[in-house]
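Lecture notes, unit on protein representations.

Consider one protein chain, 148 amino acids long.
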Amino acid sequence: MLVPRQDLTGADRIWAARYNPGDVLRYSRSSQETGIGKGEYARVKSVDAPNNRLTVERKDGTEQSYDPRRQQGVSVYREQERAFSVGDRVQLTAPSPDLKLANRELGTVETIGQDGRMSFEDGRRPRGRTRFGEESSPRPRIRRDESF
């Protein structure tokens, strides 16, 4: 699960030294200079503080280096293990327009598979289900690893 790094202010985000390898970044704005798109996630691979450069690994495995002063709209997260049980209430903290899921949408964990994939009852759609992890269905689906 991704949790926001509460120790970073907006001003801190322009300095590479404030990032840690392993941080997960979500870009709410695209950048022609870096080629990173709106809504994309990447993981910090390395930090070059003296030159104020970050190297991130994108979902497709490519690496991109850039000066964080040149990329606006970045949210910084760290991974944290969380245990979920059937019946737990969850709240999404990032929108997914292609999956028709809004930021702050609430749901209840309905099932958890052996592979960690979850489904939750959202109380909004006909039959009200969204499944975390399954990709072949006419209803919206989320993969647990889509947060990165």
